[in-house]
Amino acid sequence: MFEMLGNLPEQLSSFAGDIDSVLKFINLLTGIFFVGLEGYLIYLVVRYRQKKGKTAKYEHGDKAQILWILAFTLIIVFLDFLIDYKGAHVWATVKEDLPACDMTVQVQAKQFDWTFVYPDKDGNFGPNAISSYREFHVPVGKKIHVVLTSKDVIHDFFLPEVRLKQDVMPQRFINEWFDTQKVGTYHIVCDELCGYGHTRMTAVLHVDDQQTFDDWLASKEKEQQGGTAQ
Ligand SMILES: [Cu+2]
Description:
Layout: H1 2-6, H2 16-47, H3 63-96, E1 103-110, E2 113-118, E3 130-133, E4 135-139, E5 144-150, E6 155-159, E7 164-168, E8 174-178, E9 184-190, E10 202-208, H4 210-225
Parallel strand pairs: 1-5, 4-10
Antiparallel strand pairs: 1-2, 2-3, 5-8, 6-7, 6-9, 9-10
Helix pairs in contact: 2-3
Bound molecules: copper (II) ion (CU).
């Protein structure tokens, strides 16, 4: 279990560490329960194994049994609320409080690829908007606002290193945001089984320094105005 935790993807966003601490907390709780309950099960299997001259005896619920069930139910419900409490802050940061962002990009999902649309110079997503197929470039350190939509079925926009995951729905425009702390190339995958080509529904997140990003966007714009846009 702890080895698995060590193998989480690197933490790219400012909130990745907080997400991981909630994950670790959940894994710790479920790990304790797993070891405890499986251990108890093994103990019972050995303790009450078949023995010569002993037959099974059936018991019907008495007060003590009901109290045990009630106690365990309360413990589980309490731990559920504890997880909610631990995760409330990072949930609000990532999912509820959209901060002022440096840039907005539309993310269009369809079976089985991703298109990233950047606004034109006036900030509009009109005919001069710049679209990038399967390549999502962002400037490092900036807050990126993404508007997610799907042209067909439900997909799921998952950036493992950012620790951002959100369902993408047809007819809906869902607002999310993230930031990045390191230049590099990272994964984008669809995390909702969306059809036979689901596993091929990937893209690349390029985190560039500002100059590289500006150059890329300018070249993309030139390419599309030159009539070679796909
Ligand atoms: Cu998909």
